[in-house]
Protein backbone atom coordinates (compact mmCIF):
# COMPACT_ATOMS: atom_id res chain seq x y z
CA UNK A 1 0.00 0.00 0.00
CA UNK A 2 1.20 3.49 -0.82
CA UNK A 3 0.99 5.52 2.36
CA UNK A 4 -0.78 8.86 1.98
CA UNK A 5 -0.65 11.99 4.13
CA UNK A 6 -3.57 10.58 6.13
CA UNK A 7 -1.17 7.99 7.60
CA UNK A 8 1.17 10.60 9.06
CA UNK A 9 1.47 11.09 12.82
CA UNK A 10 2.63 14.29 14.47
CA UNK A 11 4.76 12.15 16.81
CA UNK A 12 5.65 8.44 16.92
CA UNK A 13 3.39 7.81 19.92
CA UNK A 14 0.38 9.74 18.66
CA UNK A 15 -2.75 7.62 18.87
CA UNK A 16 -5.16 7.84 15.94
CA UNK A 17 -8.77 7.20 16.94
CA UNK A 18 -11.71 6.80 14.59
CA UNK A 19 -15.11 7.86 15.96
CA UNK A 20 -18.15 6.65 14.03
CA UNK A 21 -21.72 7.56 14.94
CA UNK A 22 -24.31 5.47 13.11
CA UNK A 23 -27.81 6.93 12.87
CA UNK A 24 -30.20 7.49 9.98
CA UNK A 25 -31.86 10.52 11.56
CA UNK A 26 -28.74 12.21 12.96
CA UNK A 27 -26.92 11.80 9.64
CA UNK A 28 -29.90 13.44 7.91
CA UNK A 29 -29.91 16.37 10.34
CA UNK A 30 -33.21 15.43 11.99
CA UNK A 31 -31.49 15.78 15.37
CA UNK A 32 -28.00 16.59 16.58
CA UNK A 33 -25.68 13.65 17.03
CA UNK A 34 -24.71 13.08 20.67
CA UNK A 35 -22.52 9.99 20.21
CA UNK A 36 -19.34 11.52 18.79
CA UNK A 37 -19.27 14.47 21.22
CA UNK A 38 -19.71 12.06 24.15
CA UNK A 39 -16.89 9.84 22.92
CA UNK A 40 -14.59 12.81 22.32
CA UNK A 41 -15.21 14.34 25.76
CA UNK A 42 -14.63 11.04 27.56
CA UNK A 43 -11.48 10.18 25.63
CA UNK A 44 -10.01 13.62 26.19
CA UNK A 45 -10.50 13.17 29.93
CA UNK A 46 -9.14 9.61 29.95
CA UNK A 47 -6.08 9.85 27.70
CA UNK A 48 -2.75 11.39 28.66
CA UNK A 49 -1.06 10.29 25.44
CA UNK A 50 -1.18 12.55 22.36
CA UNK A 51 -4.12 11.65 20.18
CA UNK A 52 -6.10 12.78 17.16
CA UNK A 53 -9.66 11.97 16.10
CA UNK A 54 -11.03 11.06 12.67
CA UNK A 55 -14.81 11.40 12.81
CA UNK A 56 -17.67 10.09 10.68
CA UNK A 57 -21.46 10.47 11.03
CA UNK A 58 -23.21 7.97 8.76
CA UNK A 59 -26.63 6.29 8.28
CA UNK A 60 -27.52 2.71 9.21
CA UNK A 61 -26.38 1.19 5.93
CA UNK A 62 -24.41 -2.02 6.30
CA UNK A 63 -22.14 -1.61 3.29
CA UNK A 64 -21.37 2.02 4.17
CA UNK A 65 -20.52 1.13 7.76
CA UNK A 66 -18.13 -1.60 6.62
CA UNK A 67 -16.50 0.67 4.03
CA UNK A 68 -16.10 3.44 6.63
CA UNK A 69 -14.43 1.15 9.16
CA UNK A 70 -12.05 -0.17 6.52
CA UNK A 71 -11.26 3.37 5.38
CA UNK A 72 -10.39 4.50 8.92
CA UNK A 73 -7.99 1.60 9.41
CA UNK A 74 -6.50 1.16 5.94
CA UNK A 75 -6.38 4.77 4.71
CA UNK A 76 -6.12 6.78 7.95
CA UNK A 77 -4.11 4.27 10.02
CA UNK A 78 -6.42 4.53 13.03
CA UNK A 79 -5.24 2.36 15.91
CA UNK A 80 -8.61 2.32 17.63
CA UNK A 81 -12.07 2.77 16.10
CA UNK A 82 -15.14 3.28 18.31
CA UNK A 83 -18.65 3.10 16.90
CA UNK A 84 -21.84 4.19 18.60
CA UNK A 85 -25.36 3.19 17.64
CA UNK A 86 -27.04 0.40 15.72
CA UNK A 87 -26.36 -2.54 18.07
CA UNK A 88 -29.90 -3.48 19.14
CA UNK A 89 -32.26 -6.12 17.71
CA UNK A 90 -34.36 -3.86 15.49
CA UNK A 91 -34.43 -4.21 11.72
CA UNK A 92 -32.13 -1.21 11.08
CA UNK A 93 -29.55 -2.23 13.71
CA UNK A 94 -26.81 -3.77 11.58
CA UNK A 95 -23.61 -2.29 13.07
CA UNK A 96 -22.33 -5.66 14.43
CA UNK A 97 -22.78 -7.38 11.06
CA UNK A 98 -20.99 -4.54 9.27
CA UNK A 99 -18.20 -4.61 11.85
CA UNK A 100 -17.68 -8.35 11.41
CA UNK A 101 -17.28 -7.77 7.67
CA UNK A 102 -14.46 -5.31 8.36
CA UNK A 103 -12.73 -7.48 10.95
CA UNK A 104 -10.18 -10.25 10.66
CA UNK A 105 -10.40 -11.52 14.27
CA UNK A 106 -13.26 -11.46 16.76
CA UNK A 107 -12.52 -10.23 20.31
CA UNK A 108 -15.52 -11.67 22.21
CA UNK A 109 -14.46 -10.54 25.69
CA UNK A 110 -15.32 -6.92 24.96
CA UNK A 111 -18.95 -7.68 24.12
CA UNK A 112 -19.29 -9.96 27.13
CA UNK A 113 -18.01 -7.28 29.51
CA UNK A 114 -20.11 -4.50 27.96
CA UNK A 115 -23.27 -6.51 28.59
CA UNK A 116 -22.16 -7.33 32.15
CA UNK A 117 -21.76 -3.61 32.89
CA UNK A 118 -25.12 -2.69 31.39
CA UNK A 119 -26.91 -5.49 33.25
CA UNK A 120 -26.21 -3.60 36.47
CA UNK A 121 -28.70 -1.02 35.23
CA UNK A 122 -31.27 -2.67 32.95
CA UNK A 123 -32.30 -6.28 32.23
CA UNK A 124 -32.66 -5.38 28.55
CA UNK A 125 -28.84 -5.24 28.32
CA UNK A 126 -29.07 -8.83 27.08
CA UNK A 127 -30.60 -7.44 23.88
CA UNK A 128 -27.39 -5.58 23.06
CA UNK A 129 -25.29 -7.13 20.29
CA UNK A 130 -22.16 -5.01 20.80
CA UNK A 131 -18.90 -6.66 19.82
CA UNK A 132 -15.27 -5.95 19.00
CA UNK A 133 -12.91 -7.09 16.27
CA UNK A 134 -9.37 -6.60 15.10
CA UNK A 135 -8.69 -5.51 11.55
CA UNK A 136 -5.23 -6.57 10.42
CA UNK A 137 -3.60 -5.59 7.15
CA UNK A 138 0.08 -6.13 6.25
CA UNK A 139 1.09 -2.61 7.28
CA UNK A 140 -1.15 -2.00 10.25
CA UNK A 141 -3.72 -3.31 12.74
CA UNK A 142 -6.56 -1.72 14.70
CA UNK A 143 -9.09 -2.55 17.39
CA UNK A 144 -12.72 -1.78 16.46
CA UNK A 145 -15.34 -1.67 19.24
CA UNK A 146 -19.11 -1.20 19.00
CA UNK A 147 -20.39 0.97 21.87
CA UNK A 148 -23.92 1.90 23.01
CA UNK A 149 -25.72 4.88 21.55
CA UNK A 150 -26.51 6.84 24.73
CA UNK A 151 -23.80 9.15 26.17
CA UNK A 152 -24.34 7.92 29.75
CA UNK A 153 -24.06 4.30 28.63
CA UNK A 154 -20.93 5.10 26.62
CA UNK A 155 -19.23 6.45 29.74
CA UNK A 156 -20.33 3.53 31.93
CA UNK A 157 -19.16 1.00 29.35
CA UNK A 158 -15.73 2.57 28.89
CA UNK A 159 -15.09 3.62 32.47
CA UNK A 160 -16.83 0.91 34.46
CA UNK A 161 -18.77 1.21 37.71
CA UNK A 162 -17.38 2.88 40.84
CA UNK A 163 -18.65 3.25 44.38
CA UNK A 164 -19.05 6.58 46.17
CA UNK A 165 -15.34 6.52 47.10
CA UNK A 166 -14.26 6.03 43.51
CA UNK A 167 -13.32 2.36 43.97
CA UNK A 168 -13.93 0.26 40.86
CA UNK A 169 -16.78 -2.21 41.31
CA UNK A 170 -16.94 -3.47 37.73
CA UNK A 171 -14.02 -2.68 35.37
CA UNK A 172 -14.82 -0.79 32.19
CA UNK A 173 -13.64 -2.16 28.89
CA UNK A 174 -11.16 0.66 28.27
CA UNK A 175 -8.84 -0.70 30.99
CA UNK A 176 -7.90 -3.48 28.55
CA UNK A 177 -7.62 -1.31 25.42
CA UNK A 178 -4.06 0.06 25.86
CA UNK A 179 -2.51 -3.40 26.27
CA UNK A 180 -4.49 -4.67 23.29
CA UNK A 181 -3.10 -1.81 21.21
CA UNK A 182 0.40 -2.74 22.46
CA UNK A 183 -0.06 -6.32 21.32
CA UNK A 184 -1.10 -5.35 17.80
CA UNK A 185 1.83 -2.97 17.37
CA UNK A 186 0.20 0.40 18.09
CA UNK A 187 1.41 3.38 20.14
CA UNK A 188 1.89 3.06 23.90
CA UNK A 189 -1.21 4.57 25.52
CA UNK A 190 -1.17 6.24 28.92
CA UNK A 191 -4.39 7.01 30.77
CA UNK A 192 -5.58 9.33 33.51
CA UNK A 193 -5.94 6.84 36.38
CA UNK A 194 -8.61 8.94 38.08
CA UNK A 195 -10.83 8.17 35.07
CA UNK A 196 -9.68 4.70 34.06
CA UNK A 197 -6.52 2.80 34.94
CA UNK A 198 -4.94 0.89 32.08
CA UNK A 199 -4.01 -2.68 32.98
CA UNK A 200 -0.78 -4.16 31.71
CA UNK A 201 1.31 -7.05 33.03
CA UNK A 202 4.48 -5.80 34.72
CA UNK A 203 6.59 -7.02 31.80
CA UNK A 204 4.70 -4.68 29.46
CA UNK A 205 5.06 -1.49 31.52
CA UNK A 206 7.32 1.25 30.27
CA UNK A 207 9.70 2.60 32.88
CATH superfamily: MoaB/Mog-like domain
Mean pLDDT: 92
CATH 2nd-level architecture: 3-Layer(aba) Sandwich
**Order of the strands making up the biggest sheet:** 2-1-3-6-5-4
Biggest β-sheet strands, sense, barrel = 6 strands, mixed
Low-confidence stretches: none
Q: So what's the overall shape?
A: globular
Tally of individual helices: 7
What is the CA-atom radius of gyration, in angstroms?
Answer: 16 Å
Spatial separation of the terminal alpha carbons? 34 Å
Strand-residue proportion: 15-25%
Helical proportion, percent range: 25-40%
Structural account:
This protein is an alpha/beta fold. It has one domain (8-204): Molybdenum Cofactor Biosythetic Enzyme, Chain A. The chain contains seven helices and eight strands; from the N terminus they run βααβαβαβαββαββα. Strand 5 and strand 6 form a beta hairpin. Helix 2 (35-46) runs parallel beside helix 6 (151-159). The longest helix has 13 residues, at 62-74.
Quick recap of the structure?
The chain is an alpha/beta fold.
Detail the topology: elements first, then pairings:
Elements (H helix, E strand, L loop, with lengths): L14 E8 L1 H4 L7 H12 L4 E8 L3 H13 L5 E5 L10 H8 L2 E2 L1 H11 L13 E6 L2 E8 L3 H9 E3 L5 E4 L5 H7 L24
Parallel strand pairs: 1-2, 1-3, 3-6
Antiparallel strand pairs: 4-5, 5-6, 7-8
Helix pairs in contact: 2-6, 3-4, 5-6
Task: Give keywords.
207 residues; Molybdenum Cofactor Biosythetic Enzyme, Chain A; two-stranded antiparallel sheet; 7 helices; globular
Amino acid sequence: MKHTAAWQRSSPNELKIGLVSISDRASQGVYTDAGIPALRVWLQSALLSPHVFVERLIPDTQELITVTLIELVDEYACDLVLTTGGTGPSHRDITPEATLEAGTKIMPGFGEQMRQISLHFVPTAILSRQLAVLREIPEHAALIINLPGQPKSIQETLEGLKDSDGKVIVPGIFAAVPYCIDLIGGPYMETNETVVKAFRPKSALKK
